[in-house]
Amino acid sequence: MANRSYLYSAGTFPTAANSEKIRCISENNWSIPPAHKLLVGRGTETVPSMLWNMRIAIAADFAGGAALLGDLLRVVGQGLAGDGDFDECVARTTAHLDKQRDTYFVLETGEMVALGDEDPKEAVRYLVSRDIPDAVARAEAAIAGEDDEWLASLRADWQNHFDSFYSEALYFSFPDE
User: Fold this and answer.
1) How far apart (Å, rounded) are the C-alpha atoms in residues 130 and 173?
2) CB atoms < 10 A from the CB of 78, how many?
3) Which among 1, 58, 93, 121 would be 20 to 30 A from 26, CA to CA?
């Protein structure tokens, strides 16, 4: 079984007893990819997990994160002109985000932070205070034309950075209320 990061959308700010409909966005095996980090890169906060009994989930502004990822995909795509697979990935991702649009993203990190040796809560604090802000800063610089090296690395391995499993049903899905 693969350990995964799980991305959802929600209409209300996530709490441990969230009763709002939770929409499935994406899951990614063995990592929290840059796409997930960027999607939770605006208004980022640590929140109680909906899956585990710890405060190890991350909530963020849906519209801001989706716009940031969209802008980065546009710039990455400028260097991949004619790559039909990348174009299909962007179209599939964009359509799914539009379909599952809501107020917040919720990133469930439990399976990923459990892989390391440090305390899961500390690992999530690091994600929120350093890793995610660093990814956002690099994306903003790349979009502004100021980080061509990072942009080239994204283009060279775009499948691992952007091509997660986008679906209405993930390994952990929530029934409609």
Assistant:
1) 29
2) 10
3) 121
Q: What single-letter amino acid sits at 91?
A: A
Q: Which two tokens stand for residue 119?
A: 């305390």
Q: 36, exposed or middle or buried, with CB in 10 Å at 0-12, 13-18, 19+?
A: buried
Which of helix, strand or coil describes residue 82? coil
C-alpha to C-alpha distance for 134 and 127, rounded to whole angstroms:
9
Q: How far apart are CA 45 and CA 105, in angstroms?
A: 10
pLDDT, tens digit only, all 177 positions of the chain: 468 888 989 888 877 555 567 887 988 887 899 999 999 999 999 999 888 888 999 999 999 999 999 999 999 999 998 889 999 999 999 999 999 999 999 999 987 777 777 888 999 999 999 999 999 999 999 999 999 999 999 999 998 888 877 677 666 566 654
